[in-house]
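Aim 2 progress. For rRNA methyltransferase 3, mitochondrial isoform X3, the working sequence is reproduced below.
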Amino acid sequence: MTYPETQLLHALPILLICDNLRDPGNLGTILRSAAGVGCSKVLLTKGCVDAWEPKVLRAGMGAHFQVPIINNLDWEAVPNYLPNDTRVYVADNCGLYTQAQAQMSNKASDYGWVCDRRPLKFHKYEEEEEYLESAANKGWLPELEVQSYDSDWTEAPAAVVIGGETSGVSLESLQLAESTGGGRLLIPIVPGVDSLNSAMAASILLFEGRRQLRVRAEHLSRDGSYH
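Predicted structure tokens for this construct:
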């Protein structure tokens, strides 16, 4: 497919990775936000709903023809689609990382991100509590720095991972984030609120990334005008 010239000119060094997103409405809304922000591309891992399913198309409102979408990827293939020096950041909402951290710390919340639900299953492990306990003890869970969504995470090309609302993000996404020097992005919400919708969280993070890039460009322009 070819894409509008104006869209290509405004593409940003921000890439979106959808991890096991199964709801067509959510995926379509996320694609619409990705197109609006100017994402360079969107990657869909295996387990996501088909991007070209009718309900996704309807919710996307034309986004499919504004941003490149790559479907049905194995995690082993994902790095092939990332620009050099890309850092991967996960928005872990009720996923594997959150649950293991809760077991280790015995806390119900983490810097204001409250999640009362347990994932129905993990991508690799079915016996949740046993594996979470062993994860903490054996150290196979990647250690990712938790940072606020409005901290500066766009210094290098960035890829944001959004997980499905049932299972959260996968272990593979956490491993990729660790290997690229990325981290976990936290959107604080008030206690008592279960979680954010995946599409809402994706929109907040993508537009925050765009804001950071715009501010950096303005600073560089201002600094250059002084010389």
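The chain is about 35% helix and 20% strand. This observation will guide construct design in the next reporting period.
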